[in-house]
């Protein structure tokens, strides 16, 4: 399997996951807090913040999807690296609010690492050395 096929599969997983996550926060914010490691449902009108998180996730997923579908693979690699900041920040937020370490590292930390890995692989694919390594013209 070529590096390009592996990268396309990894990126497709990222796009679908981020879009699913965004829809979950927008359509059912009350069901989303336990799944991300936050200790409890926010008091008052706190669901508004979760819906905002959902719209952020949807926007991030749409950006990734458009770049993937239009073939802007180098830009896609950079955007994946930049978007890895969001789950890293979520990990820090869960830790700061005394959420479970397993959720902070296992959900958000691994998601951030997955995005970084996919981004770096895409950048490798689109660099001169990466193209030469998989037999494409430089």
Please characterize this protein's 3D structure.
With 138 residues, the protein is mainly alpha-helical. It has one domain (3-133). Helices cover 75% and strands 0% of the residues. The longest helix is centred in the C-terminal third of the chain and has 26 residues, at 101-126. 31% of the residues are buried. The model has no long low-confidence stretch (mean pLDDT 87).
Strands, helices and their partners?
Blueprint: H1 3-27, H2 47-70, H3 73-83, H4 85-96, H5 101-126, H6 128-133
Tell me the structural class.
mainly alpha
Fraction in helix: over 70%
Query: Could you say how many structural domains there are in total?
Result: 1
Shape: elongated
Largest sheet: none
SSE pattern: HHHHHH
Based on DSSP secondary structure assignment, what is the total number of beta strands?
0
Number of helices: 6
Mean pLDDT: 87
Write out key terms for the chains shown.
elongated; 138 residues; mainly alpha
Summarize it.
The protein is mainly alpha-helical. It has helices at residues 3-27, 47-70, 73-83, 85-96, 101-126, 128-133.
